[in-house]
Amino acid sequence: MSLAASVAVARGPMTVGLDVAVADGEVLAVLGPNGAGKSTLLRVLAGLLRPDDGRVVVGTDVWVDVAAGVHLPAHERRLGMVFQDHLLFPHLSVTDNVAFGLRTRGVRRGPARAAAREWLARVGVADLADRRPGQLSGGQAQRAALARALVGDPALLLLDEPLSALDARTRLTVRAELRRHLADYGGSTVLVTHDPVDAMALADRVVVVEEGRVVQAGTPADVSRHPRTDYVARLVGLALLPGTGEGGTVRLEGGGRVAVAEQTAGPVFVAVRPESVALYPSRPDGSPRNVWPARLVAATPHGSTVRCELAGEVPLIADVTATAFAELGLAPGTPVWASVKASEVAVYDR
Amino acid sequence: MSLAASVAVARGPMTVGLDVAVADGEVLAVLGPNGAGKSTLLRVLAGLLRPDDGRVVVGTDVWVDVAAGVHLPAHERRLGMVFQDHLLFPHLSVTDNVAFGLRTRGVRRGPARAAAREWLARVGVADLADRRPGQLSGGQAQRAALARALVGDPALLLLDEPLSALDARTRLTVRAELRRHLADYGGSTVLVTHDPVDAMALADRVVVVEEGRVVQAGTPADVSRHPRTDYVARLVGLALLPGTGEGGTVRLEGGGRVAVAEQTAGPVFVAVRPESVALYPSRPDGSPRNVWPARLVAATPHGSTVRCELAGEVPLIADVTATAFAELGLAPGTPVWASVKASEVAVYDR
Amino acid sequence: MRGRREAGVPAPLLVPALLAVAFLVLPLLGLLVRAPWSELWPQLSSPAVGQALRLSLVSATAATLVSVVLGVPLAWVLARSRIRGRSVLRALVTVPLVLPPVVGGVALFLVLGRQGLVGAWLDEAFGLTIPFTTTAVVIAETFVAMPFLVISVEGALRAADARFEDAAATLGADRWTTFRRVTLPLVAPGVAAGAVLCWARALGEFGATITFAGNFPGTTQTMPLAVYLALQRDPQAAVVLSLVLLAVSLATLLLLRDRWLSRAGAAA
Amino acid sequence: MRGRREAGVPAPLLVPALLAVAFLVLPLLGLLVRAPWSELWPQLSSPAVGQALRLSLVSATAATLVSVVLGVPLAWVLARSRIRGRSVLRALVTVPLVLPPVVGGVALFLVLGRQGLVGAWLDEAFGLTIPFTTTAVVIAETFVAMPFLVISVEGALRAADARFEDAAATLGADRWTTFRRVTLPLVAPGVAAGAVLCWARALGEFGATITFAGNFPGTTQTMPLAVYLALQRDPQAAVVLSLVLLAVSLATLLLLRDRWLSRAGAAA
Amino acid sequence: GGDDGAAAPGGATSSAPDDGPSGTLTVFAAASLTDVFTDLGGRLEGQHPGLDVQFNFAGSSALATQVVQGAPADVFASAAEPQMATVTDAGLAAGEPAVVAANVLQIAVPAGNPAGVTGLADFAREELALAVCAPEVPCGAASEEVFAAAGVAAVPDTQEEDVRAALTKVELGEVDAALVYTTDVASAGDAVEGLDFPESAEAVNAYPIATLTGAPNPDAAAAFVELVLSEEGRAALSGAGFRVP
Ligand SMILES: Nc1ncnc2c1ncn2[C@@H]1O[C@H](COP(=O)(O)OP(=O)(O)OP(=O)(O)O)[C@@H](O)[C@H]1O
Ligand SMILES: Nc1ncnc2c1ncn2[C@@H]1O[C@H](COP(=O)(O)OP(=O)(O)OP(=O)(O)O)[C@@H](O)[C@H]1O
Ligand SMILES: [Mg+2]
Ligand SMILES: [Mg+2]
């Protein structure tokens, strides 16, 4: 069922005030830095935290309406929820943990256990069905928690980083399993994640939350192509430079100018892909119109390339091959020249 | 100080039997699927779990020697440890949590708190210093736990997925901070992680653990170039095909043949990078000597490319651009032809 | 190189713990040593002693059951609900602990006696009189012992991690289901401890019982009453009787607690 | 559309909880209603009552302190250490709960009396005699009340999450430091509950006290003893005295517990 | 603490200037003697300004235990002979105990006697709620004797551990009649009425008193026993409902 929530809740010095809407069968990914308020949002949607203000409507049911004094208790909300720290019941076997929701909703023990075992098999922990949660590894526990949330027929799925503890391979298969399940699932899903790949793979829409506010919303492709904040840009691996369009160039807010391929005017964002940035030990000649002096601040190997963070008038990220990195003799502090072709620079309105 | 451990411990039906050695100042990354025994290893090294057999030697001190009945209690081991589920003390402020280790080792309250605050600043949670752990978000708690492990001067650092709950941007800065710290740090570090980037960025050496055994060890570059198990290959994004060298071709164990650029003989691994795999709707003509029919089983968008899992005589992974993916009209189940140039295929002894 | 085994009990804990054990166990040893063992057989073979022992065990167990059934919910209300006046209620519940048991017996008369608030009505409506019956013994013991259960279970509930109850709520469990299926198993060791306290206190109850239930062999004479009366005439016999009571309760505790605790432990 | 507020207390918990409250509080109300209030002022203004009340509070508090200092370590040993015979020890510690207090007083004589195991030596070596002194009151109360603390703290310790103790060990804390800085704060609500039980039981102690410490106004006559004497003479006055004791302990519990619990609660 | 000396043997020195007893006198007495002895103790203190009389009132058997355990008592007054026998058997009584008072049984009924009890025969009525003392305690033993003498097959609902407990039930109207001592009825006030019955003479309960061999303050002990046995003491006792020999 569709979800429409607009809630405000004070958390320490910060106020989390978020508007989200999720259609029937849609998956909404919530991205954002640590402490942005993602888990807080899920707790409010689950009924575990009373918002100070706002409404939560699922389908035609009003779950929360602070003004009208309505607050449906959590257990009447038909939820499936994965908590960031699992919270598997320590006194029940893994099977009974997964069967718990079915049992409370009236399913008899036999069928509930059977359904639980089926879900455990789907997330790849069938052989651990009789263990206690204390006897599971971190990733195994997370998978059991996911199974517990998915079994049954919730109206709303709330998944708080459900794949964070999984190893890379299991993550692929569990993500695929989850994707398959969500494709058939008729309710709304809110998925909190730090992994842009999860968002891309699973979500129909993305909202980015920072400091308790929605700063960007859209399809995964849209958000990753046109990030509106530095956080999102970093997340999808772009350098984001706000500036003002002045025809064929953009005057950056931090100083400096960038030549672009289009004509622009007014406040714009300039986004530069790390692959498109070339580094030179001395000022290069040639076609690229954008050439800036910079200094290497950090370098992280990443597969066969090295991701270089550059500081200077125009802060950039550059991906260079490990060979090139070695040949340039780069080390933190080294001065370099960075260049980008104007045609490789994306520019869009702020 | 250097660490040499060779321990065996039964965990449910499985036995974890691991040999690891870490030199002074070295960082060893432990990679492996869920339930492989990584956390178990750390618990044994920390003295929280008694091994059934084996020895642990740090520097010249014998911490564990089961045969001789030696088992140094955890609190005498000079450790810094991050637990997979943080375990911050709920009754102490974040500062006091971080200062705890210093206080127990005799540092006075003032200096201990000052050191704690400094570390909290280094991991970016200085403003939360006076909160209780229950008032932190997941990622904030993980950073506090990291600070608690790093403060002081442990002989051995044991980090169990210390960055898993961090958002992508924070992860970069905390990882850089950790890297800086580990570069100066004289003790041994054992880092458990699921993220190959962490391993590449932080570790001097990598061991891969599967089902309680070490299946591969080496430098990060070595392991990522020459994976020896399917798990590692997936981790670093390669398709791994074991076979037997027969001159210019390799006969694969699963059936089928691969043409390679070198002459080989005997048991070998063939590794194929996803980028080097091209897909065609019908059998292509031309130079590549390796052309196989296959079927698409799963596709995951990943930045501007789509990662395709292929099943067939030769199971492969292919990265194609989103545009190409759309043009090929690919969907799970679609039959395709995959081709790889012989010169792009890596081959090395098993 | 230090090669010693894992430190056992640290001295600052061991020393007071040993003192505590000495303090609690030495007097018992003293009793054991000085007890006139020749009295044992005559006492044990006396049917009155058997009767009193049986009545004690039955009524203490019944009082514990009633206390668990009524007291655990009360502890939950005190620990979890947000009703007003909780702290007053908590203190009120603690207060019967302080009441001299004899006065407690008088108070029970005022409510359940022939002329008591409820008792008079029971008498008229159903011809039921409670005082001087085995029921009265159970009631007196429950009145005295239940607060021990309530307070210790409440402490266990406060210490338990309430986030598991959140998780249960998201799985559709209402508060009652959550209580039964999550909270109660999680605090099982606390309930076990409370029940042991309650049972032991009920088994040792004297003042309220003799006041409210009187002392009639076979109906209301529990062991402590028998011991007290024996003390009047033959202190030696009284010591032997107490030791019999001790031995029986020790055996029961050893059997029951280990069984219950190991179950509760497996659940934790 | 259901718009009602969060469910309060579920009926299957509320009904037994209400029954429990009625059962525990109604008799007190009965006492309050029937109490001869005209007696209140004469009793309150009598210096003997003031003395007894003061002695009761002082000795119960002292007994609680001793019990906490000795009993919490013992509870820790029972819950955490792996010494042998733990279950026997636990049962032994529970047993004084079952001992009729008067017999407990006799047992104390056997150890600490002038002719007792330890008492004789104390007398010879230091000229110290314990019986019939205020110290004897504290000892008698501690003997009777400490097991309540031990058992309920042990329950709390068992229910607490031992993984935090692992974390403390990796931070260099030995078991003693871990106990002080991690375990104890985590089980603070359990210790508070145990201390309340212990204090209340000590405050209400009668049998062991009158036997081992005697009944000397000003030195060993606590309120329950004063109530006992009053019962011999003037039952009405006894009821009033009990109510005074109740009121004082109620006030103390309300003050202390709320203060302690809110601190402990902030720590949780 | 300093006030511990009140009961400690060391406090009982007789170094006062006048010849009479001085220091601390410690009297262990049955709880039923509380009022009379407190009163007499006050009088003795009035006669001897240097004297401080301390009482320890409790059940006779508890007192006997304490004395046997070496309590620093000067005088022991028991509510029955068996407990005094415990002390004399241990060789702790100085001389023969003297009988200070005696008590006989009375039927106690709630004010107004709602059940219409008239005599000992009513203790055989099943429909009444009846209390007697347990046979282990003196008044219970006495009750058995009077029932035997009267030929009544008593059907009590409860055998009380002491007279007080029985009397409490009468006061509350929870029993229709109880067999208790005269003195207790006298002290109970208006809520209880006492009915004499002829067979009561069959069982007279004596209160023995003795000074103790280990008495820290034997002079004062002797003075107190003398006062209790004097005309003045007898008057006080009979005023409280005791029979005096
Ligand atoms: N109980 C609490 N009291 C006060 N502040 C809190 C409490 N819980 C969380 N906070 C604060 O509220 C903010 C939002 O927390 P929340 O858990 O929603 O973050 P999050 O987006 O889920 O972060 P993460 O990615 O680290 O899990 C954080 O700054 C956190 O410190
Ligand atoms: N207390 C226990 N009793 C029995 N088996 C256990 C216990 N704890 C863990 N195991 C099992 O031991 C194996 C190793 O667990 P461990 O926690 O070391 O895995 P891990 O490599 O850390 O996995 P993850 O990446 O999921 O954290 C797992 O299969 C797990 O199920
Ligand atoms: Mg979160
Ligand atoms: Mg792990």
UniProtKB/TrEMBL annotation, chains A, B:
<dbReference type="GO" id="GO:0015689">
    <property type="term" value="P:molybdate ion transport"/>
</dbReference>
<keyword id="KW-0547">Nucleotide-binding</keyword>
<dbReference type="InterPro" id="IPR027417">
    <property type="entry name" value="P-loop_NTPase"/>
</dbReference>
<dbReference type="InterPro" id="IPR004606">
    <property type="entry name" value="Mop_domain"/>
</dbReference>
<dbReference type="GO" id="GO:0005524">
    <property type="term" value="F:ATP binding"/>
</dbReference>
<feature type="domain" description="Mop">
    <location>
        <begin position="285"/>
        <end position="349"/>
    </location>
</feature>
<dbReference type="InterPro" id="IPR003593">
    <property type="entry name" value="AAA+_ATPase"/>
</dbReference>
<dbReference type="InterPro" id="IPR008995">
    <property type="entry name" value="Mo/tungstate-bd_C_term_dom"/>
</dbReference>
<dbReference type="InterPro" id="IPR003439">
    <property type="entry name" value="ABC_transporter-like_ATP-bd"/>
</dbReference>
<dbReference type="InterPro" id="IPR017871">
    <property type="entry name" value="ABC_transporter-like_CS"/>
</dbReference>
<keyword id="KW-0813">Transport</keyword>
<dbReference type="Pfam" id="PF00005">
    <property type="entry name" value="ABC_tran"/>
</dbReference>
<protein>
    <submittedName>
        <fullName>Molybdate transport system ATP-binding protein</fullName>
    </submittedName>
</protein>
<dbReference type="InterPro" id="IPR050093">
    <property type="entry name" value="ABC_SmlMolc_Importer"/>
</dbReference>
<dbReference type="GO" id="GO:0016887">
    <property type="term" value="F:ATP hydrolysis activity"/>
</dbReference>
<feature type="domain" description="ABC transporter">
    <location>
        <begin position="2"/>
        <end position="236"/>
    </location>
</feature>
<dbReference type="Pfam" id="PF03459">
    <property type="entry name" value="TOBE"/>
</dbReference>
<dbReference type="InterPro" id="IPR005116">
    <property type="entry name" value="Transp-assoc_OB_typ1"/>
</dbReference>
<keyword id="KW-0500">Molybdenum</keyword>
<keyword id="KW-0067">ATP-binding</keyword>
UniProtKB/TrEMBL annotation, chains C, D:
<dbReference type="GO" id="GO:0015098">
    <property type="term" value="F:molybdate ion transmembrane transporter activity"/>
</dbReference>
<feature type="transmembrane region" description="Helical">
    <location>
        <begin position="182"/>
        <end position="202"/>
    </location>
</feature>
<feature type="transmembrane region" description="Helical">
    <location>
        <begin position="132"/>
        <end position="153"/>
    </location>
</feature>
<dbReference type="GO" id="GO:0005886">
    <property type="term" value="C:plasma membrane"/>
</dbReference>
<keyword id="KW-0500">Molybdenum</keyword>
<dbReference type="InterPro" id="IPR006469">
    <property type="entry name" value="NifC_ABC_porter"/>
</dbReference>
<feature type="transmembrane region" description="Helical">
    <location>
        <begin position="12"/>
        <end position="33"/>
    </location>
</feature>
<keyword id="KW-1003">Cell membrane</keyword>
<comment type="similarity">
    <text>Belongs to the binding-protein-dependent transport system permease family. CysTW subfamily.</text>
</comment>
<feature type="transmembrane region" description="Helical">
    <location>
        <begin position="237"/>
        <end position="256"/>
    </location>
</feature>
<keyword id="KW-0812">Transmembrane</keyword>
<keyword id="KW-0472">Membrane</keyword>
<keyword id="KW-1133">Transmembrane helix</keyword>
<feature type="transmembrane region" description="Helical">
    <location>
        <begin position="91"/>
        <end position="112"/>
    </location>
</feature>
<keyword id="KW-0813">Transport</keyword>
<dbReference type="Pfam" id="PF00528">
    <property type="entry name" value="BPD_transp_1"/>
</dbReference>
<dbReference type="InterPro" id="IPR011867">
    <property type="entry name" value="ModB_ABC"/>
</dbReference>
<dbReference type="InterPro" id="IPR000515">
    <property type="entry name" value="MetI-like"/>
</dbReference>
<dbReference type="InterPro" id="IPR035906">
    <property type="entry name" value="MetI-like_sf"/>
</dbReference>
<comment type="function">
    <text>Part of the binding-protein-dependent transport system for molybdenum; probably responsible for the translocation of the substrate across the membrane.</text>
</comment>
<feature type="transmembrane region" description="Helical">
    <location>
        <begin position="53"/>
        <end position="79"/>
    </location>
</feature>
<protein>
    <recommendedName>
        <fullName>Molybdenum transport system permease</fullName>
    </recommendedName>
</protein>
